[in-house]
Amino acid sequence: MPPIEEAQAIHRQRVTALRAQLVTVPLDHPDLTLEIGCGHGHYMAAYAAAHPAEHCIAIDIIVERLEKCERKAARAGLTNVTWLRAEAADLLEALPRETRFSGRILVLFPDPWPKRKHWKNRLIQAPFLSDLAQLTAPDTPLCFRTDHEGYFAEALEVVSAHPDWIINPAEEWPFERETIFEARANSHQSWIARRA
Question: Residue 181 maps to which CATH number?
Fold first, then answer.
């Protein structure tokens, strides 16, 4: 099988597996929140505890991190968070089209792919923002934070130019809880955009 076809087949398998997992997730919840790249779960566990009326979906691609997340949630007795092993693009494709995130969408310290040749792998790009907008209720905030100055500037430029999102420079960060990646950073920058 040629490499492109093999990659497409693997992608389809991942999406199919995710769809099977999503059957048990309350995707019709009126306050559905998403964290993309939850790391070790420090932020999302604290967020879910502080926002019991929301149902939170947190994704990451590293199994060991997600196992830690699940242990944290179990110790805290959290029942309003679902941890999934998924890439963002796979999740957006796997979700039913009627899904609507209306709580918050959180992207904290994503991989900045610092080498220019890898910039195509950065999460915040126009196609991703379009796909995300289709699953997001109007006025829902997309909260982005990074310690990489170049990625911050590029992501801000991309989201500012996107017709589905409106940057709100005066909006305050909704919930503070230091992540492992934030603790390692000398500084960070944030922006919040709302679904138009």
Answer: 3.40.50.150
